Amino acid sequence: MNSRCASVSRLIPFSCVDGPGSRLALFLQGCNLRCKNCHNPWTMGRCNDCGECVLHCPHEALSLSAGKVWWQSDICQQCDTCLHMCPQQATPMAQNMSVEEVLEYIRKAVLFIEGITVSGGEATTQLPFIVALFSAIKTDPQLQHLTCMVDSNGMLSETGWQKVLPVCDGVMLDLKAWDSACHQQLTGRDNTLIKQSITFLSGQGKLAELRLLVIPGQVDYLQHIDALAAFIKRSGNVPVRLNAFHAHGVYGEAKAWPSATPQDVEQLAQRLRERGVDNLLFPALYL
Ligand code: SF4
Ligand code: SF4
To answer: What is the pTM of this model?
Structure first.
C-alpha cells in the first residue's frame, strides 16, 4: 500500500474542463505564485492551524483540538466564510489524502473517465505525491489505461519535470504574460522558469496544451505578439487555449478589472493566426 499523502483541497470525480474527455480532477493545496487574478485564492496557502476561522464558522463545522483545526464535512454548509477570512489564503477544509485513498476514488470512477488530472493551487508543489500516484496508476492493471495529466503554472525545474514525466502523459501549462516584469506584476514571480518549462516539455513531447489568459489592460501578449508567436511556433504545433478573464471569485484589485470579451479574445487570436499560430482553442463561455 502506498501511504504517501498530499494536502487536497478538492476532488471532482467527473470533470469535462480539466483536460481531454471526462476526467477525475484532484486539486492540491498550495501554490508558489500569487496571481492577482486567481479564482481560487484560498488554494494558495497551507493552513497553520492558527484557529482564527473556527469561531467565525456560522454552522459550527470547525473545531480546535490538540492544536489542530478539524472540519466536519457533514455539518459544513459550504458558505465559504472561513475561506474569506483566512490570513494564510488557505482553507480548513483541505484534507490529507494518501495515494491509496485517491486510488479508491479512481476505482469507483474508472468506467466513466478517460484519465486523471492533478491540478491546484500548483500541483507540482507536491511532486513526490504526484509521482507516487501516477506510478501506482501506471502499474495497476485495472487503471493503467487512464491518462495521467498535470495542470501546472510551470514553476518547476527540469530536474523536477524529469521525475514525473516517465509516468505523466501530458502537461497543461499557463503563460500568464510574456515580459517578466509584467508577469511579476501579475503573479509576484518572473516567468523565466515557466518559459524554460514550456520549451523543455514541448521538446519531450509532453506539452499537451499552452494557455493564455486574456485580461484586458493587464496582460502584454499584444505588445509582444511577434516574440510570443515565434516562441509558440518553436514549441511545435501545441494547442493554445485562449481563456477569458472574469472577476467572479477573485479577491483584491482584480475584482475591479473588466472581463475579457469575445472581441478581446478574437483580437489576440487574429494576431496569432497572422503569425502562423493557428491551433487555437476558444472559451466555451464568457461571463
Ligand atoms: S484555515 Fe486559515 S484561519 Fe483557519 S486555522 Fe487554517 S490558517 Fe487559520
Ligand atoms: S465553508 Fe467554512 S465557514 Fe462555511 S460552514 Fe463550511 S467550514 Fe464553516
So the answer is: 0.94
